[in-house]
Amino acid sequence: MCNLYRMTKNADEVAKLFDLDAERGLNSSAEIYPGYTGLVAAADGLKAMSWGFPLARTGAKGQPLKPKPINNARTDKLDGPFWKSSFVSRRCLIPVDAFAEAEGSKGAKTRTWFSLANGETMTVAGIWRDSAEWGACYSMVMTEACIHVASIHDRMPVIVGQSDRETWLAGPPNEAKALCRPFEGALHIDRTPEPWVGGAPATPRLL
Q: Following CA atoms 183, 186, 191, 195 in sequence, which dihedral angle do they give, to the nearest 10 degrees?
């Protein structure tokens, strides 16, 4: 599953990629973790949303804890109660320069980055909703890993080609779900010595 991705372009650059209008003052981090704010292309324009649907939690004594951001939606779970209404009615596209997976032995995992081999920004399938906890929030849709990712993880984000963007955003659910398949193109793999742990804050960061 994807728990870290990179988006280095600013809001105006991303808006041009999708031929959308961007709200004024949009921004996000270059590296985005669950709970961080990311840029999302929805049907009505480019938005800033929190990455992850909030999941309510309670402590051992029943006390409320901070919600957990559920930032990945498995394709085979999209018909379930947690995701279904968003998948049917509120699909979005997530601009991603590269996504990371943890690779290596326990306690010594490092970041391996995946990006399009041609260097272009990839478009990842997403769903979104409003929440009382964090306002508008989104989740990435995950599918089975392609051959470039499979040796590290069995799942990867759904990468949507330019010709399929409108189908994902506004097409019937069955046509959108048909796009949830392993990526068939070429990916560039960057294995780095960067430790996997230690970069993400414990609480969501919103604009």
A: -30
As a whole number of angstroms, the distance between CA 181 and CA 192 comes to 27
Q: What is the pLDDT of residues 41-93, one digit of tens each?
A: 998 889 999 999 999 888 888 788 889 999 999 999 999 999 999 999 999 99
Rounded-to-integer distance, Cα 18 and Cα 116, Å = 17
Q: Taking the model in full, what pTM does it have?
A: 0.91
How far apart CA 100 and CA 4 sit, in angstroms, is: 6
> Considering only CA atoms, which of 199, 4, 174 is closest in space to residue 98?
4
HSE of 205, CA atoms in CB hemisphere, 13 A: 13
Name the CATH code of domain 5-54+67-97+121-144+156-184 (choices 2.102.10.10, 1.20.810.10, 3.90.1680.10, 2.60.40.2250).
3.90.1680.10
